[in-house]
Design brief:
It is a single chain. This protein is an alpha+beta fold and 337 residues long. Among the domains are: 13-22 and 124-247, D-amino Acid Aminotransferase, Chain A, domain 1 (2-Layer Sandwich), CATH 3.30.470.20; 253-333, D-amino Acid Aminotransferase, Chain A, domain 1 (2-Layer Sandwich). The chain is 30% helix and 28% strand.
């Protein structure tokens, strides 16, 4: 049962060898390689940005020359935004390439991990969403749409999530259809998918990427808070060959907001208890302690706290999460050595 990105292929291979339901080895390998995923999307006609595999600075410059506008540079095989870099016209592609190539997830991957490929693509602009889907025997059995917020800057680190998205029923239908097409394009069989999309012109879902595993960023507990039941339990049930019924509509809404801090050594941490006691808060925590080192905000691993809320509707849940997260402060001091 895959949770981390680095277990997706192994879980699929084990399931296939044992003759039990799973993602399917071919689908898992496609989902673990963003270049393969782009190629599968292009072959299926999925809306997505123009892209190219790159092996160095010259390739990035060539793509930039052929495609005016902003670019996205990323590793094809990491998670949590590790190594993802936004490039605007005038930015130095050589510096970006060196930083992206060196970005790593060494605490999570196996010691035998072999770094994969790199990808550059045109940057799309619009609201960002994700879709969490439960799939059984190649059929989408349940879907949720989540609104995403991202901190500004060259590193698109996720600042929060709110679900279910309050967008129109017509938009939900388009996202559902896009995910059915994605499942067919990669040949995914059974499990959970976490796909990310940009709504070009505010309405047209374009594929960013897709993970063949449970979502991170506390989206799983948010789903359970909003819909009831247990997404993990139902994940297990489809892997056992069952077809669990999940509520199509959420009874409530839930949100998470993350906390950031300036790079340096942590001097003080305040406000976690106050945030936890605020209205609508389900859970709150600071995830660093005094003396810890905080790096530049370049991926999800650089955040320093979070707040989860539950409310009657999405705007209320999001507003409560933003307000409570503002109560958590992490002060740092520069590191001189």
């Amino acid at each position: 049962m895959p949770s981390w990105e680095y277990t997706v292929v192994t879980a699929a291979a084990c399931a296939e060898a044992a003759g039990v339901p799973g993602a399917g080895l071919k689908a898992a390998r496609t989902l673990r390689d963003k270049v393969r995923l782009r190629e599968a999307g292009a072959a299926a006609g999925l809306p997505q940005p123009r892209f190219a595999e790159v092996a160095g600075v010259a390739d990035i410059r060539a793509f930039a020359a052929a495609h005016d506008g902003d670019l996205v540079l990323k590793p094809a095989d990491r998670q949590a935004g590790v190594g993802v870099r936004l490039l605007a016209p005038g930015d130095d592609p050589a510096a970006a390439w060196e930083r992206t190539r060196a970005a790593d997830d060494a605490k999570l991957r196996s010691a035998g991990f072999t770094p994969g490929r790199f990808l550059v693509e045109e940057r799309l602009h619009g609201p960002e969403i994700s879709a969490e889907v439960l799939v059984a025997d190649g059929e989408v059995r349940w879907l949720n749409v989540t609104d995403k917020s991202v901190w500004p800057g060259p590193f698109p680190v996720e600042a929060g999530h709110t679900l279910p998205s309050p967008r129109t029923a017509a938009l939900w239908d388009r996202v559902a259809e896009a995910n059915r097409a994605l499942v067919e394009a990669v040949g995914f069989r059974t499990g959970v998918l976490h796909s990310e999309w940009i709504l070009a012109d505010g309405t047209d879902p374009h594929l960013v990427e897709c993970a063949g595993r449970l979502p991170g960023d506390a989206i799983v507990p948010l789903i359970d808070l909003a819909y009831g039941g247990s997404l993990v339990e139902d994940f297990v049930r489809v892997l056992r060959g069952e077809h669990p019924d999940r509520p199509a509509r959420a009874a409530r809404a839930a949100a998470v907001r993350f906390v950031s801090a300036a790079p340096g050594r942590v001097r003080t941490v305040r406000g976690a208890d106050e945030a936890g006691a605020a209205d609508a808060v389900f859970a709150a925590a600071a995830t660093v302690a005094e003396g810890a080192l905080v790096g530049e905000l370049t991926s999800s691993w650089d955040r320093v706290g979070h707040v989860l809320t539950v409310a009657d509707d999405a705007p209320s849940a999001e507003a409560a999460a933003v307000a409570a997260a503002s109560l958590i402060t992490v002060e740092t001091e520069p590191v001189t050595e």
